[in-house]
Please model this.
Amino acid sequence: AVPPVPQTEQHAWNLIQRSRPCVNLHAASSLKGCNLLGFDNLIIMRRLVEHLYAEGHRSFGYVASRTKKYSYERFAVFRDMLAEKHIELPSAWSVGFSPMTARPGRRFCKITRLERYAAGGHNSDRAEYERELAKLLQCFLDAGTQRPSAIVFETDQVAYLFWELAERRGLKIPGDIAIAGVDNDQTGRGKRYNRFLTTVEQDFRSYARESIVMLVDMIDGRRPRSGQVVLLPPKLIIRKSSLKRSLANGTLSSPELKKRIEGYLADNLTDSDLAETIVDAFGMRRYTFARRFRT
Model:
């Protein structure tokens, strides 16, 4: 299995792929006919945009955080879906990629380089990366600035950083601005914000299993050794951060819904692990959930 690698290492991997069965993970190599296992970026963005549109959002922002091939694909799908719905994406609300050319700017490339350094575990690099990224996010936070109704973030971690910055400015999510991300990341700031963030989950356990299946099938001759492309479907997880119409309609607090939930819990809730799962699904803390639904 070939992980995403820098361009400087790609040549070595290409030599290996010419002589042995290989599966490229997440991003295709430059080698013609290479095998690829990834997630369907069309579905990732389509599900996010359709959900946000159904919630009544009609103005959108986008924050990219990488310059990988799948980053371009996700942004292109996002931009095209807005165009289908006759929604304009202003340049000021697109951090990372130009809505006109779908290419990254020089300043954004600096941010992605800093991210790679920060990923190495050096706290000073991480701090510098976040400072530079925070400057890019100010276009949505400055007082008196016109903001989009919703922002889609390429990764959850950047969405969490934005949420933290918004809180410092006294902005409420989703009251003042709705957000959604990708990854269902529970690390770092995700320990605080994950249970509230609408996101798209990429099942990496299934991903790992499928990569092994592909390699074994190629070794045993059950499938060709080149030209295989498998794109796994992601899962949309809807939480509070993206809601608008549902909150306005009282969907989450209607007396009828509350009564049905209380009835279900009284009949079924005996497993403490299940209780935690339900609490997380509702985006509440355990104490608040228990008071509201009398558990």
Remarks:
- Residues 33 and 226 are 5 Å apart (CA to CA).
